[in-house]
């Protein structure tokens, strides 16, 4: 059975031309253009940033309807 899992990339990644991703072992990485990786995995671009506000000298993050892992 094939299960398609949605993949999301945050819009802030677009500020980088290339990113480095792990490729299977601790000492190996792959340099790849962000847009190419997004196309390869079928990622959807979303804005996960959210406004923060100071409450009693601590930072409170506004809740979202989804969780990224």
Automatic annotation (TrEMBL):
Record-linked Gene3D superfamilies:
YbaK/aminoacyl-tRNA synthetase-associated domain
User: Can you name one GO molecular function term for this protein?
Assistant: aminoacyl-tRNA deacylase activity
- InterPro entries recorded: YbaK/aa-tRNA-synt-asso_dom_sf
Q: Which domain of life is it from?
A: Bacteria
Write the protein's name.
Answer: Uncharacterized protein
Which organism was this protein described from? Acidocella aminolytica 101 = DSM 11237
